Every structure is written in structure tokens, then in C-alpha cells.
Amino acid sequence: MPRKALVVDSDFFFVEFLVALLEKRGYQVRKAYDGKQGIAALEEGPYDIIFAELVMPKVNGRQFFEFIRRKFNGPYFPIVALSGTVIEQMDEGGFDLAILDMHMPEMDGVALARQIRERTATLPLVLFSSLGRRETGDGERLFDAYLAKPIRQSHLFDTLVGLLAHEAPKAQAVTGKPLWLGGEDVAGKTVIVYAEQGFGDAIQMARYVPLLAARGAETAIACAPALEQLLASVAGVRAVFSSREPPIAFDCHVPIMSLPRAFRTTLASVPSQVPYLHAPKLAAARWRERLETPRPQRKVGLAWAGNPRHKRDRIRSLPVEAYAPLLAIRECSFFSLQKGDAAGSLAKVDALGGRIVDYTAELESFADTAALVSALDLVITVDTAIAHLAGALGKPVWILLPLAPDSRWMTARADSPWYPSARLFRQRQRGDWEPVIQAVAGELERLS
Length: 448
Fold this sequence. Notes:
Layout: E1 4-8, H1 12-24, E2 28-32, H2 35-42, E3 49-52, H3 61-71, E4 79-81, H4 86-89, E5 97-101, H5 109-119, E6 125-128, H6 138-147, E7 160-161, H7 169-173, E8 190-194, H8 199-205, H9 209-214, E9 218-222, H10 228-231, E10 237-241, E11 252-255, H11 259-262, H12 281-290, E12 298-303, H13 313-316, H14 324-327, E13 332-336, E14 356-358, H15 366-374, E15 378-382, H16 385-392, E16 397-401, E17 422-426, H17 434-447
Parallel strand pairs: 1-2, 1-3, 3-4, 4-5, 5-6, 6-7, 8-9, 8-11, 9-10, 12-13, 12-15, 13-14, 15-16, 16-17
């Protein structure tokens, strides 16, 4: 009978990555993408091994682990922590292995590993690199070593595992060619840049493509279909594609989030020239004409929520009702830039549709959204792709940040080295958006 495994993680690509590793080793794998699905999947157990993240939609990872132990009091299940928030859970115990990416967006994985080791000398700890070195084979060998360990065996497993995580179609499309991280001359070569993470990440790091062109490289970008037209506007791009196979021959590849490393970026050398993305000219002109009003008003775009599958979405997004004080400023007209499930909550703050105009049904791609944004005077948004889009277009953007923001926004500053047109409004207490909105409303009144 095949061994059974359960993988519970909200990151689709990471789930597929783990499933591929486990199926290759003869496991029958059940997948789940949030805590509720994971709990339902437990009915199909028992499992020989369970992989689950600490921060997942709908059910907290810790609650999920507790449910496992209550439901299955007999068999032992190795629990694998797949999140940077593991450090917040260490004192509670109960973990058998921690797997940490060195290149987590939330923090430095190596620094996190040191913090974990300060708290416990016995928790098996694996560091892997999402940049990876597939050709060494070390990563899969060490993964096999863990799966082969006897149950509850205490051992230290401090090592760098060379796995290529987040095995998205774009990553698969470029295997077999060398990874470029800045060391080799790329003059006269074709480089595939693949957007392996979120929309906002791709928009932010597209600024490096002109630097590749300046080194004499021809560049093609692999990305999601919604980004294709927008990223085609970046200087130096030869081709943009969303298919699994590159449409052109190429010499090497690089994940888009690795470009700062490849160019040895420091705070002083962040390429901050904007705009480096451009809206379609005809569509932008149509929006400017369409939004003209007899009485001049400041045109403000609003976004209040990110992707709910993002591990930090619960702390970075806010309820649309929080924007109510802004709507009282009559000198401004407001336009929704919110897509996804959260767009349906608009009626909670503007039941009659008189204060926030919603054209988002007409926006099918980021190029469409860029055209609308180009016709606005200001964008106010939480930390989501809209913030990066406005900043990359050089549009004034006010970004509302949680107390512990993503590391790219740093701390204790109101500006951003990435986006000269951005202004940052930060929480002073965890989860408290009211003072942030009050500050934004005050500044907006002064502008008006």
C-alpha cells in the first residue's frame, strides 16, 4: 500500500512543488489550500506525513495542528512549519521540523533560522534556497534523508538545501539553462526573466530589465497573462509571454525577485527612476476624457484589499468602511481600483454608489488598470499590486501599511526608495487603522 501524505498550504506553486517531490518518492498525496480544506482532508487519513503552513486562510495553522492531535491520538504525524511566523510560535512547542526559505519576502530566512536556534537546539531545521541549484542534487538527497528518519528521532538538520522551490510553469520552462545572478557577462545573450511570485513583485522588479538591456542583453519576460501587455511597455523588453515554453531561444534565466541580488543592489543604488512602466496611450487618453467634470475635482483611486490567499493579507488589508472619513471630503471624486472578492463590499460604505465610481468591470488586465490610474491625480491603497502599479507609473500614491509591513517598505520612514512618488502612512498599533485613515483624511483635505 502506498504511503499517504497531506499537503496544506495556500501557495499553489509551493503545494505543487512538494507534491512533485513526494509523488516521485511513491507517496499518494492529498492537497488542500486552506485550513478548512485541510480539516476535511483529514477524514481521508490516516497519513504518514503532513505538511502544513502556520498562516493559512480560514483556519489558523496552530488550530489545524491542535485539531490533528485531538482527532488522531494514536499515530504520530510529523508537522512541518512552512512560514516565517514560526518564530512567533516557538514557545508553544509541538513542531518536529522547520523548513525555511532563505528568500522569504517577510524577512531574511537565515536571520530567522538563527533566532529559532537561539530558542531550541533540538528542532530539526532546514534552510532551502528558492533560487536553488537543481544541478547539484543535494536538495532532493537531503529531502530523502528526512523522509527516511525514524519517527520522533531527534537530530540537527542545519544545512542549506539546494531546492528550486515555487516550481511555477515559468520556472519549469527555463530548466536546463544556467541561472544568472549577475556574475557572468550577458552582452549579446538572451535572458529569460520569469515572474515567479506575485503581481506586485513583478511590477516592482521590472525596473531592472532596462539595466539588463544596458549590459547588452536581450530580455524576455515570462509572467501571468494579466501582466503581459503592461510589462511589454518596459524599455529593453524583446518579448513577453505566459506560455510554458519560451517563444525564443535563450541563454540563461533569472527569477525576477532575484534581480536586486544580481545587480548587487544597496539602499543607495536602488534604481528609482519612474515611470518605467507605461499605460496604453489611446486607452489613457480615453479615460482622461471620460473622467473630465464641469467642476474640477481631485480624482482619487482607492484600493483596500489584496489577494486573500496571501499569507499576510489579514494584516495588510482593511475593511472598505474604514475609508468612510475620506468620502466626506467633497472636493474629491473617488474611483474604485479594487478587484477580486473584496470589490463586492463597496456597498458597505457607498450603498447608493454616489461617492465611489466603479469602472472595475471594464478592467481585464493590469494595462487596463494602468490606463485608468494614469487619468487620476492620486491613488490611496493598502500594500497590494495597485501600490506598485501607481508607483511604477510615477503616479502619486499613498500606501497604508500595517505595524509590521513587508520588508521592502522598511520602517520609520514616510517615503520609499523604490517609488519617489509614494508616501507611506503607517500603523502605530497592531491592527489599528483609524489613526492612519485620520492622517490620510487630514492630508487629503489640505491638498484639496
